[in-house]
Specification:
The longest helix has 25 residues. Helix 1 packs across helix 3 and helix 8 crosses helix 9. The chain is mainly alpha-helical and about 260 residues long. It contains nine helices and no strands.
Length: about 260
């Protein structure tokens, strides 16, 4: 896939990220994602269309509301940029693949889940559970278009296996793992299994490694102790992202160290 097409996918990601800001703010509060239209949370003034352009509007407004001049968090453009970068990276990694829409969906729901979990320590069922159906349907369509049914079977096995692994961990040590993480694990297993067992293993290992590093940073910076609860969903998603983008080189490097 050319850089120009990947850049176009990045622009699509910017638009998706703009909507994700609404999801991340409203869904945990039980608010409608449609009504009312986007508005300033400080003064309730509606956001004008010219002020709703991803990233650019925030820069032109100096990070402040046009009406009341309340500060607008830099998190909004950062989420838009993150979604754009992930979509562009997926496009470069997968090329013109029938599975690309499924991974665009994963990029969107993954960014939303990571941010919500970081804010609230929850992974909402309203996002996680429908994603099984959406992701499964999109990957089934990709398998039908390419006749790669073995990839779909591997995805299903990967989903069940990772769900089972996390379920076992949650059963053994419920204080350290929430059931929201278990449900997210099954979704990630679906996508990682589609890409192959190398990607599946890298994604699982990277999630735990990054989570351990995150916990270590919390302790080292005196922001908590060994029993401090930290959201694990963002680390699971970051590990899956790493596996999707770089599982091949990582597996090759590991095997070369073993002399295989």
């Amino acid at each position: 896939m050319t850089v120009a097409v990947a850049a176009a996918c990045g622009l699509l990601g910017l638009a998706i990220g703009s909507f994700l800001n609404v999801v991340i703010w409203r869904l945990p509060r039980g608010e409608s994602l449609v009504r009312p239209p986007s508005h300033c949370p400080a003064c309730d003034a509606p956001v004008r269309p010219r002020d709703n352009v991803p990233v650019l509007s925030w820069l032109l407004l100096g990070g402040r509301c046009r009406d009341c001049h309340a500060r607008i968090s830099a998190r909004y453009p950062l989420i838009e940029l993150l979604t754009a970068v992930v979509c562009a990276a997926f496009a470069l990694r997968l090329g013109a693949s029938w599975a690309l829409p499924a991974f665009f969906y994963l990029a969107a729901v993954g960014v939303a889940l990571a941010c919500i979990d970081w804010d609230t320590r929850r992974l909402p069922n309203a996002l996680t559970l429908p994603s099984y159906a959406v992701g499964g349907a999109l990957l089934t369509g990709a398998a039908a278009a390419t006749n790669h049914w073995s990839m779909l079977l591997r995805a299903a096995i990967g989903m069940v296996a990772l769900f089972g692994l996390y379920f076992l961990l949650a059963f053994i040590y419920p204080a350290g793992m929430g059931f929201g993480d278990v449900k997210l694990a099954g979704l990630l297993g679906l996508y990682l299994g589609w890409l192959g067992w190398g990607a599946w293993c890298v994604g699982v290992f990277a999630g735990f490694l990054l989570g351990g590093i995150g916990g270590g940073i919390v302790i080292a910076t005196h922001r908590g102790g060994r029993k401090t609860a930290i959201p694990f969903g963002p680390f699971m998603l970051a590990g899956a992202l790493l596996a999707i983008l770089a599982a091949g080189p990582i597996v090759s490097a590991y095997l070369s160290l073993l002399g295989v």
